[in-house]
Amino acid sequence: MTIMSLILILGLLITLSLDFTVGQIGVNYGRNGGGLPAPSQVVALYQRYGIQRMRIYDTDPGTLQAVSGSNIELTVGILNRDLQNIAASPATADAWVRDNIRKYPNVKFRHIVVGNEVSPINGGTSQYVNFVLPAIRNIYNAISAAGLGGIKVTTAIDTEVLEPSKSFPPEDGEFRSNVAPYLNPIIRFLLNTDAPIFASIYPYFAYINNPQQIDLRYALLDPTFEGIVTRNGVRYQNLFQALLDAVYSALERSAAATASLDASTEAGGNIRRTEVKGGESGWSSGGGGHHARLESALDDVTNADYAGRYVNNLVQAVKKGTPKRPGQPIETYIFAMFDEDQKPGDETEKHFGLFSPNGQPKYQVKYN
Question: For the stretch 95-116, what's the b/e string if a residue is b when 16 or more beta carbons lie within 10 angstroms of its beta carbon?
Answer without folding.
Answer: ebbeebbeebeebbbbbbbbbb
